[in-house]
Specification:
258 residues; Rossmann fold; alpha/beta
Amino acid sequence: MFRQLANKIVLITGASTGIGEACAKIFHSNGNHVIITARRLDKLNALKEELLKVNKNSKVLALELDVSCEDSLQRFVKDLPDDMKDIDILINNAGCAIGVDPVANILAKDLNQVLDTNVKGVFNVTREFLPSMIKLNRGHIFNISSIAGSMWYPNGSIYCASKAAINAFSDVLRKEVVATKIRVTNVCPGLVETDFSVVRFGGDVEKAKVPYKGIEPLTAEDIADNIFYCASRPEHVQITEITIMANNQASPSVIHRN
């Protein structure tokens, strides 16, 4: 059962689609103020309009943010209004995967883009808002990792390494804030059907459908529902990690398909 969770300021990175968009919807519809960020401002503005049609009483702030770029982050922070600077819930969702190349064939630009987004982006956004959480002695940080962070597979070296780094980051962060009321939850989804695969396969929609054939995958709403559940626990309860897989999936490679 959810406890009442309202009037919190929720910052979501990568909110223009997928898990980030679903998180924006569930938190805002329950009476929280959301800051939605991504690189595509047009999609954020469309989402903002959609959210306000459902709930006009809670704020929605849509701001462009490329988490892999320090200059973009600083512009974003500067544009935050004073009444939305103290973040209650941070959802580090922005991430990407590019290709399925073996290590010998990896391009430097792909390596840099994935690590800059998935790893450096989480570090930079967190360290920007963590001091305020520590000062106020409150907050909840969600890091969206993956089962790939602990269940490694061939041709996924960059992505697996990036999510393993997030697993370590979450564990270290939780230990560093153990004397505070700040909670840290590491979220590790399995197969979730979103635009994620389309990006991974360079826009090839047909290739992007292949991983989900023969199985009912998770949806972005499934992950958002679990995140909201974790956030709505009593303040003395900290769900440190949640691994979510579709039924008929046991690992990235062990999947029963019909």
